[in-house]
């Protein structure tokens, strides 16, 4: 496969074909109300938002720091190498780190779009098909938003990193609907929650913060959906089936734990690829990411009953068992509150601006 780096988003080209197994499943059982799923579906319908309207794209980002990235989130910031770099080079690192990161978000969102569409086809329950179809629309809006941000505000794009590509491939290739759920709704969505949470809470650019808060609110629904479906299904499976799923999830945890060090970024920037990767692996920024990631994923695995001896042993080896006590519902409720707060603050600003301008029309974005 080929990675194109350090170009604008417009320079990324081509397609990637993954053979996808499985069956498209019709159901004739239309009348099986499932209250929790339907509640999520209703939320999914009602909380659609349009990035064109909801966000203030006229906001000008700092071209040398398009996300407002604090130094502690730059992977190589805690190093002699960074101390030696002149400010111009540091700006270059900030822009490219933003470009690499948002590019991975973009490719991951497309993965989510493809997987959600597969869930619509494969899942047996009609209510789950309903919800998954709102997720398809959510993910399309996320792809749209990240590609616009990359194009208009960052200007640098990267190809998909091999670890993310490998995960996506493993998920899409499998023909069983619950593997699509497990891979996408639990593991990749967990990755999304952690990554967008960091963007929302730690970046200082207001557009980047707001955009990620809205995306995060959608992702929280997607995770809740996956958990709901899988916790029922996995209660009933055999030990052999459970063990196979635990292996799949552990393998993904391994990749997520060890294999996101911005390889393409560093080989492109040319400050010494190997040294930069080493520094990245030990960086405080990556520790923050891992903490956020596994404090979401581990309780999720536990709540869907993938927490047998094999899983516990595997998580123990990665040093992740301490996260098993966390409460995912608290975290997700906090994500939702944060998005609401940003939304309310933004509406208030809009109203204030309208009043200042002496406008008499009320209203506002829906
Ligand atoms: Fe998404
Ligand atoms: Fe999602």
From TrEMBL:
Any Pfam family: AurF
Domain of life: Bacteria
Gene3D superfamilies: Ribonucleotide Reductase, subunit A
InterPro entries attached to this UniProt entry: AurF/CmlI, Ferritin-like_SF, RNR-like
Protein name: Ferritin-like domain-containing protein
Organism this protein belongs to: Actinomadura graeca
